[in-house]
Amino acid sequence: MARRRGSALITADLDFSAMIALPAMAGPSLISLRIAHPTPDRVTRILLESLPLIEKDLEQGAIVSIDETTFRVRPLPIS
User: Fold this and answer.
1) pTM for the full predicted model
2) What are residue 31's DSSP bridge partners?
3) CA proximity to 61, closest of 18, 31, 37
4) What is the CA radius of gyration of the chain?
5) 63 and 26 in contact (C-beta within 8 Å)?
6) What is d(CA 25, CA 40) in angstroms, rounded to the nearest whole number?
7) Is it the case that residue 27 has pLDDT exceeding 90?
């Protein structure tokens, strides 16, 4: 559904990253949260700080791993 809508998925479940990366899919984009104690306030703050920096990557297709202080972008498809 996310791929059809042009949406990105946000999850803390690492299985989603594997499901998108292994078959070399070009989308949907995925934000993988790796945050200890992910309260709604912490997740919201981290996303609001990160989204402007990764918006173009998500539009082009990427898996973005975000932790408390950094993020890593892997363009899709992953070969």
Assistant:
1) 0.88
2) 10, 64
3) 31
4) 12
5) no
6) 30
7) no
